[in-house]
Amino acid sequence: MNLQSVSFISGEPIFDKKATNKQEIGEILEKAKVAGQIWANVSVADRIECVRQFGAFVSAHRDQISKLISSEVGKLPWDADGEVSASIAKVELSIAAMETRRRDRILQPSNGPVQRQVRYRPIGVGLVLGPFNFPLHLPGGQIIPLLLAGNAVVFKPSEKATAVGQWMMDAWHQSGLPRDVMQWIVGAGDTAVTAIDRPEVGGVFLTGSRAVGQAIHRQLAGRPEVMLALELGGNNPIIVTESVPPDTVAKLVSFSAFVSAGQRCTCARRAIFVDGNDSNHQINALVIATEKLSAGLPGDNRAEVGPLIDATAAKRLKQTYDELLHLGCKPLLPFAVDPRHPALVRPSILDATDISPDGLAAIGAMEWFGPLLVVQRVKNFEAAIHAAARTPYGLAASLLGGSKAMFDQFAAGVGAGVVNWNGPTTGAAGALPFGGLDASGNHRPAGYYAIDFCSDPVSSLLRDEPSTDDPWSIVS
User: Fold this and answer.
1) How far apart are CA 343 and CA 347, in angstroms?
2) GO annotations under biological process (predicted)?
């Protein structure tokens, strides 16, 4: 089967390659295992230098890769350029994380009778399964720390972002990384399944949906020696209190829900308003501001909301919208596809205030990926926290307004891994951990903490010579 990508800008094919077959996958992983054993013995300083060379290469070619991201996955230019900036910044952040969190060290002064030492051992071959929504930044956030820790990497980009994946591979090799240390495979889900089954795999790293994460978890049953790090989706709430001006609500909530066409795992899916004198004005302002957002393709300089990844994603989002209507939600801004492109979906808003508790629970259990927001009114702040937490997911959440005490109550009760105050749900800092709780992850936060799942700690007690003390004396 051939994988093809067609440009959102020109409509021309930009990638066409056969999927990697089973035999080729085996050969690639065998080479990676051998190369990884050599790479693990390369000095940390040399590994750091190679990673920095990659960052310098991306920086020198940022316009090229930014345009390719826009062309292949439909990101608007400002959004694609922001991803490239984050990818470049990931280099130094990962180096700093290794130095502070994963550096070999002696825990007792060398003049003591017994030294306590911790060192870190690579996990082997890391299989990185990348997403389409941040095809450079998110896999890079796993590849860079894996390489710094001394692992080989086999990368499978999303089948919807293979041109960017190929560019990344070339960038690493032109930056001096040995070819067998960083290899790639191309294909859809069956390609990943084949690779995961290979005995050479020391770790699997996924950014994707809950369903895919669960499938990989089941596939690795009985293989506890394989590290599994899952960065999964969310059903992210943003609570709006009475004190926030309507125009501020409109800006922060619309950005949370509709930036990147809603194709960020941290995008808000539910906006929960504490009902009061201002809630009508706040919701009206949100609807009006959202209706004014300009939708367009990457070549449209005025666009604020770009397309979904493809027409299939648009149809899937329409199915979600229809399901929400069936549950009793009322449209405040109906679903609409722009006639210019079947993947260009305008933002839509539904009101779930009057639906049943079972219906609200069903909404909280849903996962969707696109510019669709559900709003709900509740009677007070405690009810808002209860509504926000009514989901099996736990990735991101935000509170607008309120006091520091209210935010602390919110952070303790909402059950999310990224919890913001007076900012969008999509706000995340590179110097912090990034990951979700419950159905949004498996206790392996990425971001600054990604270095933690790239190696195993080995502890030692060291003496200059055999001890003359009798260890059996403790039983007498």
Assistant:
1) 12
2) L-proline catabolic process to L-glutamate
Report if residue 431 sits inside a domain. Answer: no
DSSP helix/strand/coil, 407: helix
Residue 432 lies in a domain: no
The token pair at 174 is: 């032109």
Write out pLDDT tens, residues 253-272.
999 999 999 999 999 999 99
pLDDT at 373: 98
Residue 267 lies in a domain: yes
Total structural domains within the chain: 2
Is residue 155 within 8 Å of residue 139, measured between CB atoms? yes
Catalytic residue among 72, 83, 231, 304: 231
Q: Tell whether 194 and 258 lie within a shared domain.
A: no
Question: CA-to-CA distance for 347 and 79, rounded, in angstroms?
Answer: 17
pLDDT, position 110: 67
Task: Find the CATH number of the domain harbouring 386.
Answer: 3.40.309.10
Give the orientation angle of helix 137-148 with respect to helix 162-174, to 10 degrees: 30
Q: What separation in angstroms does the CA of 332 have from each of 296, 328, 354?
A: 22, 13, 13
Catalytic residue check, 231: yes
Domain assignment of residue 476, yes or no: no
Are 339 and 362 within one domain? Answer: yes
Residue-number span of the structural domain to which 106 is assigned: 2-232+441-461
